[in-house]
What does this fold into?
Amino acid sequence: MKKAFTLIELLVVIAIIAILAAILFPVFAQAKEAAKKTQDLSNSKQHSLGIILYATDNDDTFARQVYKRPNSAVWGWNTPFTWREAVHPYIKSGQKTYADGTNSIQLAEGGLWDTPAKVGARGVYNSNRILMPGHCFWNVTNNSWTCDSSDDGIRNNNPVMPSVSATSLDAPAQIVTEWTVGVNPDWNASGDFAEVSWWWFGGAQFPPVFTGPTSGQKWDADSNASPNWSMPRYRYAGGLNNSFADGHAKFVKKGAFNWCSMVYVKGITSDYGDNWDWLFNPGNACAAFAR
It folds into this structure.
């Protein structure tokens, strides 16, 4: 006659299974996160190559972050042609067509434009606006947010932020061209630009602090708190993947992504009539992080 398991034996087996599950489940989660991180890094690498190829074909000049264009209304709001659409022909992965009445436009979405942690979020990859200026900027001469054209792409008398040449960069291998940003949960998109101002990266305080919990790292969550969705997102293993101006991409841990050494280029800002080089003077916040 076959002997049945005793209650003690069953409890021991259950306890062993529970212990193994407690050990293995975190490992599985880490493996899944590592796979997402690898996919995101691959995406960033393809974007980086697309940015470089675009510049190569356009007098060594980076794409602009945002171009307003006529007849681009979708669902009643104007959708700009961004740097993503500009470099998309070199990537050829991920494109979605939107239609609103008689209008039909194509946007760089899906495919390599999806980050694994936020699938379906439009514009989650965004560019360094210091290198890729947009059609709107902060105008220091009149202390106002100024645009060089209307939402329908009609030019006005306001100045245009100049495009930036890739050959003007002092350290292309250290300067970030693209990073992932947050998502506004109200409309599942990040907007059309990444924040690049020293003020926000410095923690919205003076003097700015570029490392530690009071710096811009404190906006490390996906919420609708401005400027949260336009700041870098550390979604993978406590860090983020970045594209660089020389065409490579790499993972950077939270705390190592530094505005002074990786975002800003001396003599170039995202504002009109301003210069942020003073931050690198002795005793100022960027002095210790100068390239």
Remarks:
- The helical segments are 7-57, 83-91, 198-201, 259-262.
- Residues 7-57 form the longest helix (51 residues).
